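User: Predict the full complex structure for these chains.
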Amino acid sequence: MTHLFKSTRTVLLGGAALALAATALNAETLRWARVADALTMDPHSQNEGPTSTFLHHVYETLVSRELDGSLAPRLATDWMIDPEDPTVWIFELREGVTFHNGNAFTAEDVVFSLERVRKESSDFKGLHANVVGAEAVDDYTVRVQMDGPSPLYPQNLTNFFIMDSDWAEENGAETPQDYAAGEEAFTVRNAMGTGPYQLASRDPEVRSVLQHFEGHWDETPEVTEIIYTPITEDATRIAALLSGEVDFVQDVPVQDIARLEQTEGITVTTGPENRTIFFAYDMGSEDLRSASVEGNPFADPLVREAMHLALDRDAIQQVVMRGQSVPGAQNVPPFVNGWDAELDAYGPPDPERARELMAEAGYADGFSVDLNCPNDRYLNDEAICQAFVGMLGQIGIDANLVSQSRSLHFPLIQNDESDFYLLGWGVPPFDSQYVFDFLVHSTEGARGGWNGSNYSDPELDAKIQSLATETDLEARDATIAEIWQQVQEDRVFLMVHNQVLAYAARDGVNVDVDPENQPSMTRVTFD
Amino acid sequence: MNRLARLWDSDIAWSFRHSPVAIVAAVVAVGMIFAAIFAPWIAPSDPFHPASLNLMDGFTPPGTPNAFTGNTFLLGTDDQGRDILSTILYGARISLFVGFASVIFAMVLGISLGLLAAWKGGWVGTLVMRIADVQLSFPSILIALLIFGVARGFIPPGQREQAAIWVLILSIGLSEWVQYARVVRGATMVEMGREYVQAAKVIGVHPVRIVLQHILPNVMGPVLVIATIGLALAIIAEATLSFLGVGVPPTQPSLGTLIRIGQQFLFSGEWWILFFPAMALLALALSVNLLGDWLRDVLNPRLR
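Assistant: Here is the predicted structure of the two-chain assembly.
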């Protein structure tokens, strides 16, 4: 009797093992490592690269950006300007889409999400500055009322995530988490979107698991499970790939590209990224917070010119970036509308002339100031800052390097607490207006959210605002050129270079380099 | 002269002369301490002076001329063009300063609290020793990280970089005082039962004087042993904190910061950026540790 019982159990166990093996064969797991984790699961709280990349797998947008830069349908199947009213955009929505909790996706969710993304604590509100309101015409049609003709508005929607309105109301999540104020909210660890994957488990800064959502409207991707691991240390991240602990490393340090290319079983793909790396300084305040002198030296155009002459972009490119960057002087990537080869050209550094300018400005003895720098966000960010500290030292500016994690660095800029900082900026709408709205326009209302330089010019602000409603594209481009001309003359930014991306994966895992560095794991294929 | 001769004939000196390990360790430790103290005169360049660096010197291998500038460096340069030899000398200076200062701080704090706990006894003694017990149940590096994080919260952002070194000393000191307090309390309890203390009490010597003048010198032996080993631990704790990126700023690297910078280049072939600072840290910590071991053996009556 006992014997019989034992053998039955063995058979049962064996059956279970077989069943497990079968699912393991169908499920393709991709182990994905990055330098940093998503800052939050709230889809409207942080307009930041790694956060958006992660959230695109859980949440979906109305439109998506193809690799060639064009817009493609996602949750919206079609979009048009109302033929009777040029200030209204109409979106036709995809039918038969459900959220991960089974709720149906309808126009109400879009109206709710648009309401949510425009609230004060949202970091994306600048992209919707021209929206007056939205209404659901029926379950699958939304009308968005703009404050004027806004021909380019859909370009701003590639990172506009749609959240389940019922779920948000049930959990008191109608307002985006205020990240810069350090707020903790339900949406920080929980998500409810329509995306191809659902959040199976999340341990911030350690490991997140995403499972394919069976009820997703699109074809089933080859990758059905994603294990996402943030690994801050460069060497550790690469060691994880070399030892087979992860399949795909998104942020490959420039110093390791050559070594990985020579390693058998690893494929490295490189390509230009839609992202600039630049320094900015507070040029608008009366006094600086950390400077050794009274007043604000950065307000003096001579000091700014001296700093520009001190920066040796080629040395940074050759040594710090090992050739993996595209130096330039205009703070916008070459494939974005408004880029100008002439403005992007830069001369050789001239520390001697810079010292003369410093003396002329009354800072012959120099001054000291804090330089805030992230150490886990951009390629070799801390090393770039360190190199510039040395170059500034040669013209008498003693910069104290304060380098810290991006979760501490970014709030300094958004809360206007930094005198001098390094920042990177990607341009998802591929248009200069995005740069102006966030970085150049005075900090007021929905605009200027990342303008830590306190640069403010009402005339320029008016020009920036006109871009949103200008329908004559030629006149619009002329205004963009005018704005860039002034931004360059006033030296609002100290541009360093455009980033070059490198992805590395084990052979057999195919990932294309995405210029926005927003790869979707639904596009990954296995050999 | 007489005193020197007496020292030469003492037990400790005899034991030192007959322990090759102690001699080698002492030579290495003293040599490194001297090199660190006189770094500004020995080092070929000042790596903490950013203006003197040339970025194009970066990644020069040891002993070979740089491809762009033609400069040669004995131990090579790091990613910023800093001479590794100079950086090690200056870095060891910071590491040693933090090490000594935090040991002294922990020692003063631990001895005072240990004496207090033993002398007062009662609820004061219980309170001090329970705090020590609770703290012992956490790894000291964790406590240092905690103190470091809290202290940074109090310091205005502009002064954090200058204050970083003092915060390091404070956090390592506060995480290590327990060892001293426990040993001193135990030894003091033993001494308090001895006749000379009883006698001092009877003739009415002030309690503070009894503790400081009569008891303290008799409990200093074990404290010195802990302090020597504690110095090695403090240097490693500083290196660990800096390695984790919470220590001194990268523009003024200590040995730990240098190792953190160097390990980024482990896979790309620039081994010297990691190797030399790591070897310097190893030599320093090992020699101090061996000296501590030797001192313990000499001062431990049971081993004789």
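The CA atoms of residues 193 and 309 of chain A lie 49 Å apart.
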